[in-house]
Each structure stands twice: as C-alpha cells, then as structure tokens.
Amino acid sequence: MTTASGDVPAIEFKDVVKRFGDNVVLDGLNFSVPQGQRITLIGPSGSGKTTILRLLMTLEELSGGLILIDGDPYTHEYRGDKWVSIPEKRRRVVRNRVGMVFQQFNLFPNMSVLENIIESPVHVLGKSKDEAVADAERLLDKVGMTEKRDFNTNQLSGGQQQRVAIARALAMDPEILLLDEVTSALDPEIVADVLGVLKEIADTTDITMLLVTHEMQFAREVSDRVLMFDKGQIVEEADPETMFTNPRHERTQEFLKAVLG
Amino acid sequence: MSDDFQTLIDRLPGLADGVLVTLQMTLGGAVLAMLVAVVLGFGSRTQTLWVRGPSRVVVEFFRGTSLVVQLFWVFYVLPQFGFKMEALAVAILALGLNYGAYASEVVRGSIASVPQGQWEAATALNMTWFHKVRRVIFPQAWALMIPMLANLLIQLLKGSALAYYITLQDVNFWTVELRRATADTIFSYTAGLLVYFVIAYLLTWGMNLLEERAKRRLGRGTRPSLRETLGLKPKAMYAPKVPEARGAI
Question: Which InterPro entries does this one have (chain A) (predicted)?
C-alpha cells in the first residue's frame, strides 16, 4: 500500500462513470485533489457534485472507472483488463481515511452527544474509551459544544447538531473530509456559526477538504480551488478569486449570476 | 355455584401448572419468534437473491398455513420421518415459526422506517454492517416495533391454547378439566377467559415498560407515571425534556 506523500494526490478520479438506471450522472470524469487542498464544487443541482462526494464515501457504487485515495484503489480496481469490485474488508482500510458531514446531520438519536462522537473511535479504530472521551471533549470544545456533552441529540438545535456532526467526523481523524451542503438545512442566522467552525478547522489542520456548498463567500474564503460542474463535467476550474470575479465560461457566468444575484 | 368455587380452589395447584405450561410456550415461542423475525426480517431486505428468496418463501409459508395444522404436522407427521420431539418443544417450535413469520414483517418494516441517513452516517464512520445494525439501526427500529410485537405476543399467548390438542396440559387443558369436574360450562370457560386475560394484561404491561424504556433511550420519553405504566395504552410520544429554543447557540 502506498503511503501518502507530496506527489500522490489525496483523491484521484479516473474516467469515473456513474449511472442511475438510464440517467448518466458522471460520464468519464477525471480530476484529482492534491494533499491538503480545499476544493469547492459548485454548479446547478443535478450536475453531479453530491454524487462525487457520495462515491467517495462509498454511499453509491461506481458504474465505471476508478477512484484512488492516496494512490490506493478504493472501491474498484483493474485486474488485468478486468474491472472488479474491491471487497468491503479492503474498502474499510481506505475508508478510514475519509470522513463526511451531511446536510441533514444524521446524528444517532439513540446516543448522547458524547456517545455519538466516541462510538467509532472506540469500536472501529479501537481506541480506549478514556482516550476517545478525552479526544471527544477536545473536539466538543473546538466546536463550542462542551456544555451539551451529555445531551440527547434531539435536544439540540440544527446548528448545534451540525457542530456535533463535525466533531464526530473529526474524531475519526480523517485525511479527507467531505462536506455535503452542510449549512443548507440551517436557519440563516446559524449558518455563520457553523461556517466559522469549519473555517477554524480549515485554518488549523491540513485535512484535504471537498465541499459542496451554496455559500459562495465561504467557498471564497476557504478554498484553494473551485470546480464548476455542469452535466457531470467540469466546465471551469480556477482559484476562487478568478472564479467568482472573472469567470470565463459562459455557463459559469450564468450560474454565478443566478446564485449571487 | 359455591360448589363450583370450591372445585376451583381445589384445582388451583393444577391452574398453577397450567399457567406455567402456557407461559413456557408463550415466552419460549416469543424468544424463538424474535430470532426468526430478525433473521427473516433482515433476510428479506438483502440485495442477495439467494438470501432474500428463501427468506420470503419461509415467511409466506408460515404465514400462509394454519397454526393448528402446523402443530399437528410437527407433532404427528414428523415422527413418521423419525423426528420425535416432546409436545412442549413442538408447541414452541410451531408458535415460534408461525409468529416469527408475522413478526419478521414487523422487523422488516421497522428497519425500513429508520432513515437512510442513519445507515449512511454509520458507513461514513466506517462501521461494519453488523456494528451499524447492532448499535445504530436496531435500537431505533426496536422502539418502533414494540407496539406491534406486543400485539403479536398476545396473539401468540392465545394461539398457545391450541397446544391442548397435542396433549399439553396448559390453561386451556385446566379449563376443560374444570368443566368436567363442575359440569358448569359457563363457570369454567369464564374462569378460563379470565385467566388468559390476566396473563395477557401482564404481558401488555411488560411490553409497555419496554416501549417506554426504548423511547427514553431515543430521548423521546420521560419516566412514565405509575398510572401510565399500568394503563393499557402507552402515550404515543412524550414532549422533549427541555423545550428547545431553536436558533439559540
């Protein structure tokens, strides 16, 4: 297995195809994300952004092509000319490096805030409970949720739930963090708080991040690169400054005009 | 009439034996049914055809055939193939398979009611399938399935009365014997009804306790008052412990 080095991209998509029935969402997509980069995916709904994140989290099965994490095959590989699925046992090794935060938070309602966070560090990573609790408390402090440690998740507001969900994902110590419209389900006045937490994480860690968001200002602040998607293809790729002030592609101009007003 | 009561009192030790047999069948059958329900309930959900196919067939077979015929078949037909079991084991087996088939639909439906996002979050935390089910999905589905399982448990209790026909000396047997001794049909069968009712009530009460506990674990219940616990109908849902000021951070 390859170890992460500067040259090997954190994420690499090679000719990735994803079909839902007859609907081709991604048709031979190629792109890569260098270690530690923050990439924002923008584009109209149905352009395949969320599908990319879901493929990276193995929530969807590839229809063709390869996804490499640190150069390692993840869900499929070629054996000779044959494209084969990698069994779950091997996928789990690679999946340990990837974490995700969801639009709908998806906290486990049968567990307290703390239990949500330590569940996988203890039972998947095999940390001792004391260690996991200490890590969780540090993360709760980071997201400003220390006082809610022993609360039930449904006693929390949406913004609070999302901050716990961020702490839960970070507790797995991921190399890659996928953020799927994490503020879309939140009340407007809470969005800034959650984005503030993410901004701090972006500033204080070297986690590779892939974001799908409609918060263009936030995308501008944290990302190194912005990819504009349309119909499953990258139509434009630029640093955020260029993308938001001087987009070249007509489709990007239309899209940004529509979302920025 | 006073003779009837005297006979009944004389036969109380027999009633104790009968209740014991009925409870053995009910609880043994319930445990087996739950095992069957979980295996078949998950089996019916899988993508793998060779698991799902047989699961569906077993469910439909045991739902679609009469419990009495199943009892007779296991008790009278199987021995002809060389499998002989004690009557109690036969009753537990038949009740467990029959009600397990019904309960598997309950399990399947409740598992399906747990939001897809819960499975996805568990995948994102790199849990194994078994870990997801045991720690995340089942505890949530459990709270949903208890009321329906409680119904089935009561039906199982009542269904166990059929075991009298394969020689088991349960509450039903005691009732019939009481009638024989008193020659009073109204009295004996009314006594039988009451005994079943009391057992059913206690089982319902126990299931309500389980339901409250499961809901509390999901943060949806408060400790119920004694009256609510003893009541036959649990409250659908309790208000959250802390009224949430949405937007307060």
Answer: AAA+_ATPase, ABC_ATPase_HisP-typ, ABC_transporter-like_ATP-bd, ABC_transporter-like_CS, MetN_ABC_transporter-like, P-loop_NTPase
